[in-house]
TrEMBL record:
MF terms (GO), sorted A to Z: actin filament binding
Residues covered by the FH2 domain: 1-126
Matches recorded under SUPFAM superfamilies: Formin homology 2 domain (FH2 domain) (SSF101447)
Family annotation (InterPro entries): FH2_Formin, FH2_Formin_sf, Formin-like_plant
A UniProt-annotated Pfam family: FH2
PROSITE patterns in the record: FH2
Organism of this sequence: Salix udensis
Annotated signal sequence range: none
Phylogenetic placement of the source organism: Eukaryota, Viridiplantae, Streptophyta, Embryophyta, Tracheophyta
Any single GO BP term: actin nucleation
Identification of the protein by name: FH2 domain-containing protein
Length: 126
Protein backbone atom coordinates (compact mmCIF):
# COMPACT_ATOMS: atom_id res chain seq x y z
CA UNK A 1 0.00 0.00 0.00
CA UNK A 2 1.59 3.23 -1.15
CA UNK A 3 1.59 6.30 1.08
CA UNK A 4 -0.49 9.33 0.19
CA UNK A 5 1.28 12.33 -1.32
CA UNK A 6 0.96 14.15 2.01
CA UNK A 7 2.55 11.26 3.93
CA UNK A 8 5.26 10.98 1.31
CA UNK A 9 6.15 14.68 1.64
CA UNK A 10 6.19 14.48 5.45
CA UNK A 11 8.56 11.50 5.44
CA UNK A 12 10.84 12.99 2.77
CA UNK A 13 11.04 16.30 4.66
CA UNK A 14 11.87 14.62 7.98
CA UNK A 15 15.38 15.86 8.87
CA UNK A 16 15.91 14.72 12.46
CA UNK A 17 19.01 12.51 12.61
CA UNK A 18 17.89 10.70 15.74
CA UNK A 19 17.32 7.01 14.95
CA UNK A 20 14.61 6.79 17.61
CA UNK A 21 12.27 9.39 16.08
CA UNK A 22 11.10 7.14 13.23
CA UNK A 23 9.77 3.64 13.65
CA UNK A 24 11.10 0.74 11.55
CA UNK A 25 8.27 1.02 9.01
CA UNK A 26 8.84 4.76 8.56
CA UNK A 27 12.60 4.23 8.21
CA UNK A 28 12.00 1.63 5.52
CA UNK A 29 9.51 3.88 3.74
CA UNK A 30 11.96 6.82 3.86
CA UNK A 31 14.58 4.67 2.11
CA UNK A 32 12.10 3.28 -0.43
CA UNK A 33 10.93 6.79 -1.36
CA UNK A 34 14.48 7.54 -2.55
CA UNK A 35 14.19 4.78 -5.19
CA UNK A 36 12.70 6.19 -8.43
CA UNK A 37 9.27 4.71 -9.24
CA UNK A 38 9.60 2.15 -6.43
CA UNK A 39 5.88 1.49 -6.01
CA UNK A 40 5.32 1.16 -9.75
CA UNK A 41 8.18 -1.33 -9.88
CA UNK A 42 6.72 -3.37 -7.04
CA UNK A 43 3.32 -3.36 -8.77
CA UNK A 44 4.97 -4.56 -11.99
CA UNK A 45 6.76 -7.37 -10.14
CA UNK A 46 3.50 -8.45 -8.50
CA UNK A 47 1.76 -8.41 -11.89
CA UNK A 48 4.49 -10.58 -13.41
CA UNK A 49 4.36 -12.97 -10.46
CA UNK A 50 0.58 -13.39 -10.64
CA UNK A 51 0.29 -13.41 -14.45
CA UNK A 52 0.34 -17.19 -15.01
CA UNK A 53 -2.22 -17.90 -12.30
CA UNK A 54 -4.49 -15.15 -13.66
CA UNK A 55 -4.25 -16.60 -17.18
CA UNK A 56 -5.15 -20.07 -15.87
CA UNK A 57 -8.10 -18.63 -13.94
CA UNK A 58 -9.35 -16.83 -17.06
CA UNK A 59 -8.97 -19.98 -19.17
CA UNK A 60 -11.06 -21.97 -16.70
CA UNK A 61 -13.65 -19.17 -16.63
CA UNK A 62 -13.90 -19.14 -20.43
CA UNK A 63 -14.20 -22.92 -20.52
CA UNK A 64 -17.07 -22.68 -18.04
CA UNK A 65 -18.71 -19.97 -20.13
CA UNK A 66 -18.32 -21.99 -23.34
CA UNK A 67 -19.83 -25.05 -21.66
CA UNK A 68 -22.79 -22.99 -20.45
CA UNK A 69 -23.33 -21.55 -23.95
CA UNK A 70 -23.21 -25.02 -25.47
CA UNK A 71 -25.71 -26.25 -22.91
CA UNK A 72 -28.07 -23.38 -23.79
CA UNK A 73 -27.67 -24.05 -27.52
CA UNK A 74 -28.74 -27.65 -27.00
CA UNK A 75 -31.53 -26.91 -24.52
CA UNK A 76 -35.05 -27.47 -25.81
CA UNK A 77 -36.47 -25.69 -22.74
CA UNK A 78 -34.44 -22.55 -23.46
CA UNK A 79 -35.60 -22.61 -27.09
CA UNK A 80 -39.21 -22.81 -25.90
CA UNK A 81 -38.62 -19.89 -23.53
CA UNK A 82 -37.21 -17.74 -26.34
CA UNK A 83 -40.12 -18.65 -28.58
CA UNK A 84 -42.55 -17.62 -25.83
CA UNK A 85 -40.77 -14.27 -25.51
CA UNK A 86 -40.95 -13.84 -29.29
CA UNK A 87 -44.68 -14.61 -29.35
CA UNK A 88 -45.25 -12.16 -26.49
CA UNK A 89 -43.38 -9.48 -28.43
CA UNK A 90 -45.46 -10.17 -31.53
CA UNK A 91 -48.65 -9.80 -29.50
CA UNK A 92 -47.41 -6.53 -28.02
CA UNK A 93 -46.84 -5.15 -31.54
CA UNK A 94 -50.53 -5.53 -32.43
CA UNK A 95 -52.19 -2.12 -32.55
CA UNK A 96 -48.95 -0.15 -32.84
CA UNK A 97 -47.22 1.39 -35.85
CA UNK A 98 -45.28 -1.90 -36.01
CA UNK A 99 -48.54 -3.81 -36.36
CA UNK A 100 -47.40 -5.63 -39.50
CA UNK A 101 -43.96 -6.56 -38.12
CA UNK A 102 -43.64 -10.19 -37.15
CA UNK A 103 -40.87 -12.05 -35.42
CA UNK A 104 -39.54 -15.32 -36.73
CA UNK A 105 -38.97 -18.54 -34.85
CA UNK A 106 -35.39 -19.38 -34.00
CA UNK A 107 -35.23 -21.97 -36.78
CA UNK A 108 -35.24 -18.93 -39.10
CA UNK A 109 -31.62 -18.21 -38.17
CA UNK A 110 -30.53 -21.60 -39.48
CA UNK A 111 -32.15 -21.11 -42.89
CA UNK A 112 -29.65 -19.07 -44.95
CA UNK A 113 -31.97 -18.81 -47.99
CA UNK A 114 -34.57 -17.03 -45.88
CA UNK A 115 -33.96 -13.43 -44.93
CA UNK A 116 -35.80 -10.20 -44.23
CA UNK A 117 -35.24 -8.84 -47.76
CA UNK A 118 -37.70 -11.42 -49.08
CA UNK A 119 -40.40 -10.20 -46.71
CA UNK A 120 -40.14 -6.55 -45.55
CA UNK A 121 -42.65 -7.22 -42.73
CA UNK A 122 -40.21 -9.48 -40.86
CA UNK A 123 -38.69 -7.83 -37.82
CA UNK A 124 -35.29 -9.34 -37.06
CA UNK A 125 -34.42 -8.66 -33.44
CA UNK A 126 -30.89 -7.50 -32.92
Amino acid sequence: MAPTKEEEIQIKDFKDESPFKLGPAEKFLKEVLDVPFAFKRVDAMLYITNFDSEVEYLKRSFETLEAACEELRNSRMFLKLLEAVLKTGNRMNVGTNRNHQIGRLLSFWYEPESNSRENPNICIPG
